[in-house]
Design a protein that fits this description.
A hairpin with a 4-residue loop joins strand 5 (116-119) and strand 6 (124-129). This protein has helices at residues 3-13, 67-70, 73-81, 102-111, 166-169, 200-215, 221-236, 244-256, 261-274; strands at 18-22, 26-27, 84-87, 94-99, 116-119, 124-129, 135-139, 142-145, 151-152. The chain has a five-stranded antiparallel β-sheet. Strands 2-1-3-9 form a four-stranded antiparallel β-sheet. It is flat. The chain contains nine helices and nine strands.
Length: 277
C-alpha cells in the first residue's frame, strides 16, 4: 500500500472525503469522456462522491470516504502515481482559509478568530467548522476552500477548531459593481446587424470554447467570467445570433464555478456596457 493511499484511508475512516493528487498539487485530469465536463457530471453537483469514470477525474467531486472505492483496481494506478492526498473541505463540514504569504497571515491574525492552523509551503491553512461557497482571491493572498473545492492534506495542524465566523463568510461577498445593469441588461438578441457568420457552427464553437474557458478557470473566476462574456459579446453580440439559450449556457458554466445569478447578470450587463451595446 502506498503512503498516500494509507493516508487517504485513515482520513476516509474519519469521515473526510479524499482524492489523490498528482505532481504539481493537481487532481487527476479529466478522462476523454469528461473533458470540459462534456458528460455533464459531478462538477455540477453539490455533494462529494465518486466519479462514474474508471479513474477519479473530477477533482473535488471525486472525493470519497468509501474505502472500497479508494482500494479498487480502477484507482490503483492513480494511487501509485499520486504525490499527495487532497480532501473536500465542504464534504467534511469544514472551510479552509488558505493564506498564501506572510502578509496574509499577519492580516488573518488581526482580523479573524484563532482556529486550527496547518503550515503550508508558503503560508498557512486556517480551518473552521462550517461550510460556505468557495472563492479565490478574496483579498491578496487569501482563498476560501469549502464547497466545490479541494485542499491538500498537510496534517492535522494545531489549535482548537472554532466555528466559521461571519468575518470569513463576508470575505466571499463581492462588492456591487460600480456599473449598475439597466433593467433590460440581459436581454438577447443584443444586436440587429448583418450576420457575418457563415455557418451556425462558428457560433456554437465559440460558445463551447467560452464554456470551457470558464469551467477550466482555477483562479480569478469572477474576472474570467467577465472577460469571457466580453469576448463572446464582442464576437457575436451585434448581429442578433445570440439567444437566451446561449446566454443561459454561459451563466450555467459560471454558476457551476460558484458565481451567483446576480453576479452573472452584472458581468453580462457590464460587458455590454463596455462594448457600447
Amino acid at each position: 500500500m502506498t503512503a498516500p493511499l494509507k493516508t487517504a484511508l485513515d482520513l476516509a475512516a474519519a469521515g473526510v472525503p479524499v482524492l489523490p493528487l498528482r505532481a504539481g498539487k493537481r487532481p487527476v485530469g479529466n478522462c476523454p469522456d469528461c473533458t470540459a465536463n462534456a458528460c455533464g457530471g459531478r462538477p455540477n453537483m453539490k455533494t462529494p462522491g465518486p466519479c462514474a469514470c474508471p479513474r477519479p477525474c473530477h477533482g473535488w467531486a471525486a472525493a470519497t470516504t468509501d474505502p472500497d472505492i479508494l482500494r479498487s483496481p480502477a484507482w490503483a494506478e492513480t494511487w501509485r502515481q499520486a504525490h499527495a492526498v487532497a480532501y473536500h473541505p465542504g464534504g467534511a463540514g469544514l472551510t479552509v482559509v488558505d493564506l498564501d504569504n506572510a502578509d496574509a497571515i499577519t492580516w488573518a491574525r488581526r482580523a479573524l478568530p484563532a482556529t486550527r492552523t496547518v503550515p503550508t509551503t508558503r503560508g498557512e491553512h486556517w480551518i473552521y467548522r462550517g461550510t460556505m461557497g468557495s472563492a479565490n482571491g478574496v483579498r491578496e493572498g487569501v482563498d476560501l476552500k469549502s464547497t466545490m473545492a479541494y485542499a491538500r492534506w498537510l496534517g492535522p495542524g494545531t489549535g482548537t477548531m472554532t466555528r466559521l465566523p461571519n468575518a470569513v463568510r463576508a470575505l466571499a461577498v463581492k462588492q456591487p459593481s460600480p456599473v449598475r445593469p439597466a433593467p433590460v441588461a440581459v436581454a438577447v438578441p443584443v444586436g440587429g446587424g448583418e450576420c457575418r457568420h457563415r455557418t451556425p457552427t462558428y457560433l456554437e464553437r465559440g460558445i463551447v470554447m467560452a464554456e470551457q474557458r470558464i469551467t477550466e478557470a482555477s483562479s480569478a473566476v469572477h474576472s474570467t467570467v467577465y472577460r469571457t462574456f466580453l469576448a463572446v459579446l464582442s464576437a457575436h453580440g451585434r448581429c442578433g445570433c445570440l439567444t437566451d439559450t446561449h446566454m443561459q449556457r454561459l451563466f450555467a458554466a459560471a454558476q457551476a464555478k460558484g458565481e451567483g445569478p446576480r453576479h452573472c447578470a452584472d458581468a453580462w450587463a457590464n460587458a455590454r456596457t463596455a462594448l457600447g451595446m
